[in-house]
Amino acid sequence: MVKKKLLWLHKWLGLLSGLVVLIVSLTGCLNVFQDELQLMTHPEKFFIEKPNLQPSKTIALCKLVSIAEKKLNPGEKISRVDIFPQENRTWVFRAIKTNKEAFFYSDYFTYYKRVFVNPYTGNVQVVENTKTNFFQIVLQLHMNLLLGQKYGHVVVGFSTIFFAILCLSGIVLWWPKKWKPKTIKDSFSINFKAKSKRLNYDLHNVLGFYSLLVALLFAFTGLVFAFPAFKKMVSNQLNALDSKEKQKLSLPFIPQTATTVLDNGLNYVLAQHSNADQLSIRIQKDISEPQDIQVRIEKNRTGVFYWYYFNQKNGQVEELKTSDNLQLGSRVTSLNYDLHVGSIGGIYTKILAFFGALVCASLPVTGFIIWLNKYKKSKLKRI
């Protein structure tokens, strides 16, 4: 009786969310390797030609921001800078303005451009309309089905909830009634010599079992992205389990050697983390707000970081965060992106995430075929 009710729930939740799960999973496959693919397909944006011939010192960041903004349309402003300490990399200046109420992707970004600048010479290598960038469209399709944040985010979020329930109900439906040699073989292996209906059933049933943990991880991390309240709850609950008091980090004294707080702070952070993979700066126009500089220590990892907050009035660090000094809940949620795209363990976990997402994309297809075959069979019986 329980399995019958679960089967009904599994069927209808699958039919309701199947198309969304298919789209989100397929775009997820591409997002796993989007950083590597962009570097490979557009080296002219990300790499400096003949880096050994460049001056040894970079131009002041504020001047580079001004250079980048001159390449934009009137009214468009740089709001974020991605800095790469490697000598062969450009710095990426982003200008973004969004319409949170937009229904379609075409209206969501008022403008979104990236300006790729050689930080040693000030030469602008490429000005990209990121709104039409292939990987950006794939990302927005993954996050909100190109329906804008207000509406599409909700659809994807609730479809993710349905997907999590499908995973949990699926393992109950998969569970053999009796653990006999034949049932064990049927439950753990795919009979590729079987007829199409049986093969499709095995692909859904067996692949669903083997991908269960990865699928649940995708669902959990997806929900953290989709619902801020869920993220806060997870963080608070896990933080409550972490009774160990974290030692407060001592704040360094910052000599004021540059003309602006932004340049001075960047010079200090670059000196402290010269081997970092990337620095990200969200430019704060309001002087009452601290100017933050995030340092990503490892390549393609967001969960291993230092985060500096500079007082814009005196240039001193007023707060310093590091991934090594977070409570359990904050640590888990800071790793959410790395877990979601599989970068947590390098290339091997990324490959696992890629194939896991591919299997997740297949489940709505094989599940729909199972339903369609049963529907046709029941229809024939009624005739």
TrEMBL record:
Presence of the UniProt keyword Transmembrane in the record: yes
Residue ranges crossing the lipid bilayer per the database entry: 12-33, 151-175, 207-230, 351-372
InterPro entries according to UniProt: PepSY-ass_TM
Domain of life (superkingdom): Bacteria
Keywords for the protein's UniProt record, in alphabetical order: Membrane, Transmembrane, Transmembrane helix
PANTHER family attached to this UniProt entry: BLL7967 PROTEIN, IRON-REGULATED INNER MEMBRANE PROTEIN-RELATED
Name listed for the protein in its UniProt record: PepSY-associated TM helix domain-containing protein
